Structures are given as structure tokens and as C-alpha cells.
Amino acid sequence: MLRQRLTVFGIAIALSASGCGEQAPVVTPATSAEGLWIGTTSTNRTLTAAVLDDGTSYFFYSVSANPNQIAGVLQGLGASDKGSFTSSNTKDFGIGIAVLNTTISATYAARQFLNGSFTDSGAGTVTFTSAYNTAYDTTPGVAGLAGVYTGQAGSSGGAQTANVTAATDGTFTGTEQNGCTFTGKTTARTRGNVFDQSVTFGGAPCFFAGSTFQGIAYFDTVTRRLYTAAPNSPRTDAAIFFGTKIL
Q1: How many CA atoms lie within 13 A of 114 on its CB side?
Q2: Quick one: CA dihedral 57, 62, 68, 70, positive or negative?
Q3: For residue 234, what are the CA distances in angstroms to 92, 99, 216, 227, 230?
Q4: Which of 84, 165, 179, 208 could bridge 201 with an S-S bond, Cβ 3.0-4.6 Å?
Q5: CB 98 within 8 Å of CB 9
């Protein structure tokens, strides 16, 4: 995870939003690490993370000293217990790099901070600190995601530019630089400012030709940046996308 030779990142889509569409208050359990988190690591990388109500977590991390370029995502199932958040089955999906087994050990105060460490099977331990992002406390509607996004799509096989067009009903279409096309749909979760997504890739030259993945996405309305990640079922690879809303 967070290794030194990380490349540009990305892939297919799903969307979430902070302030998009209809909003409703969300009550985060006082005993849980659930929420959106923004932070940094000891290797000078920016973190944008989501811990869902079922304990599943997605930690997007940037290239070192460059928050404008995502390098990968850590995804797994964790557990919150009296101020401790742990996960023993997290995977580190680095762009252009084979997946690594990772563990997470952290402490938290609900809706305040989430601090701890990631330990990769082959890259050692990296510590991190993060603060709660109150954007989680609203529930967006898929209509607010409609628009055009441009960014970079990638996986363990590398990265390339990609464009995505999202409709008001949550459906989307996309094209990668090599001609790969994909389609999918986003749906609002019952809790929090994060969307579930399903994405299906076309045939060759798609890296994941004919496959359908499930994942999540988060859209930051302040930066207009979209973060998405969708692991395959055996969790040996993942489709990731980091892009900016341009229309």
C-alpha cells in the first residue's frame, strides 16, 4: 500500500455527492467509526475515506505530495468497538501495481477523528490521521450527479484518461482512451453521503472485458472531484476512477 512507485489512477464509475440533489440529515451512531474522513499519511499522501454503516471502508490515497493525483484505494471490512476500528481483510489496490493484503488498526472518536496505521504484506506500516467530514451528514439524490466527468481510469494494469456522462436517473456511460466503453448505475444508500454503484465493461479492448463490478463512489462538491472504486468478486483487482465534473 502507499508504495513509492505509484502511478496515476482511475477507472469506471459510480457516484456520490456532497450537497447534490435532495438532502436529509443523517444520524451517525455515537459508537461507530462510520462516516467520511479527510486526512494525511506519514508518507505525505492525502486520504479521502468512507467507512460505511456495515463497516466496509474505502481509503483513497494520493501520490506522495500530490493531492491532485490518486494512486490507489484500500478496501475491506472492518469493525468498530469502543473507540477501536480494525480490519484484517483489507486489500490495497494500487494503480499499476498488484494487490497487497493489508491490515488496519485505528482509534476513533465518533464524528471527530480516525487515526491509526495501515500494514501491507510487502510494504511495511504507514500511519495516518484524519478528521470527520460533515458532508457525510446529508443524503444526496442521484439527480444531482447528472453531468460530464473527465479524469483517469485504471487498475493493476495501469491508467488512462476516461470520460463519464451521468444522467438524472443514476445511469451512466463512459469511454476510456483506448476505446473501452462501460455502462452502469448508481443508487443512493440508506445512510450517508455515499452511493452504491454497479459498472459493466464492454468487450475488448477493455481490461475487464465483459465483467460487472460492485462498489461505491463519493463526489466532493467543493472540489468537484469524483472518487469511485469497485473491486471484482475475488478482490484480486479493482476498477477505480478519479475525475472532475466539467459540465
Answers
A1: 28
A2: negative
A3: 13, 11, 17, 22, 12
A4: 208
A5: no
45 in any annotated domain: yes
Residue with cell 444526496: 140
Residue 204: its H or E element: none
Numbers of helices and strands, H then E, in the chain: 0, 17
Domain with 45 in it? 35-136
- Of 136, 161, 179, the last residue of a domain is 136
Which set of grid coordinates corresponds to residue 229?
Answer: 472504486
Does 12 reside within a domain? no
For residue 16, tell me if it sits in a domain: no
Bridge partners of 180? none
- Compute and round to an integer the Cα radius of gyration of the chain: 16
Least Cα distance to 238 among 63, 54, 99 occurs for: 99
Please check whether residue 54 lies inside any domain of the structure.
Answer: yes
The predicted model scores a pTM of 0.90
The CA-based dihedral angle spanning residues 126, 38, 99, 152, taken in that order and rounded to the nearest 10 degrees: -130
For the chain, list residues with pLDDT below 50. 3-19, 21-22, 24
CATH code, 120: 2.40.128
> Pick from 86, 110, 136: which residue ends a domain?
136
**Kind and range of the H or E run holding 216:** strand 212-220
* The total number of residues written for the chain in this structure: 247
